[in-house]
Amino acid sequence: MFYYFFESRSSRKDAPVVVWLTGGPGCSGSLALFYENGPFKLTDDLSLKWNDFGWDKESNLIYIDQPTGTGFSYSTSESDIRATSEEAAVDFYDFLQAFFKKHPEYAKNDFFITGESYAGHYIPAFANEVQKRNKLKQGIQINLKGIAIGNGLTNPVIQYKADRDYALSTKIIDKSEYNDLSSSASECQQAAQACASKNSSSACTDAYSTCNSYFSSILDAAGGDINYYDIRKKCEGSLCYDFSNVEKFLNQKNVKDALGVKNIEYVSCSSAVQTAMAGDELKNFAVYIPPLLQNGVKVLLYAGEFDLICNWLGNSRWVEDLKWPGYSTAPSTDFIVDNKKCGLTKGKGPLTFLKVFGAGHLVPMDQPKASLEMLSRWIQGKPL
Questions:
Q1: Which of 117, 116, 100 is CA-nearest to residue 60?
Q2: Residues 73, 117, 184, 217: which is the catalytic one?
Q3: Percent of the chain with pLDDT over 70
Q4: Is 103 a catalytic residue?
Q5: Is the full-model pTM beyond 0.90?
Q6: Domain span including residue 176
Q7: Is 121 among the residues known to form the active site?
Q8: Do 59 and 88 share a domain, yes or no?
Q9: What is the structure's pLDDT at 243?
Q10: Which of the following is catalytic: 307, 316, 366, 371?
Q11: Catalytic one of 206, 217, 270, 361
């Protein structure tokens, strides 16, 4: 399993270890590394420059290409391509064991799992796996302190239902178009609920097809070329952003030689991994959150206000649905950075939700300073 590891720029021996998981499923950690919160930014001439707001300023930082088949992580056996987030969780745990065995000086440091998008599935499952193994006293004990999910897909039944409401509230569709979508919205709801209740591969694969068709209908109603990761922009390319430079950069011979991946062709997102996990997408991973909270693991859910596909409205609704004691009546407060209102936050105890202003799906890319400040306060236990 391929990974990048960057020691904290703070040089603190007790700096926490933060792992970042990119979503997809099947998209490489290199995307976040070079375009979001890594130590470096990739320039148009394929050179690297320091990122003043890299998360390594506050932590030791790991990016992993996972599940197997993603980015530079590969296997010679097709049986190693995972079909569920729970299967991927076992590989993730094995990776952590190997990492901390190789770097025992970090094993006692506070450990946080972060990521975005499909990591809304990964992170709850992975954190649960770590907690389970810790309780069984298996392997090296991992000092899991918190998880943070940005614009994640975690509870699809609630989140898909919110997509149409979000589209109407932001005026990318009108009331007539909203009403026209009611039938396909209902079909998605029924299919998603069937997946949740039956938890079978066939029901969940059917739900994947039905709900993606429904989401495509929303995009068509919104004009077809809208960037569903940031409704302020047009969709350009297969990922709605031009990330082609990272493929050009990582497929250079000298870069591959330096990384020790000479015979692997880098692709930002793996269609094989995405296809394999089609039956996983509509499953509800919010069920893992309450046990984590009850065991003292801090949970931060944050979402950029202009993302459609994993919008803040759907995320806020599934967090409310957790019915965590005291959360529903907790007041919303401003998230202030440099005397500027950068969002709204709500929390109770270990559970926090943050709506980030001026950002789409990729919060650290759109609001780098605010996202670094968010991370800094959160890992230090300060209120946002």
A1: 100
A2: 117
A3: 100
A4: no
A5: yes
A6: 157-233
A7: no
A8: yes
A9: 93
A10: 307
A11: 361
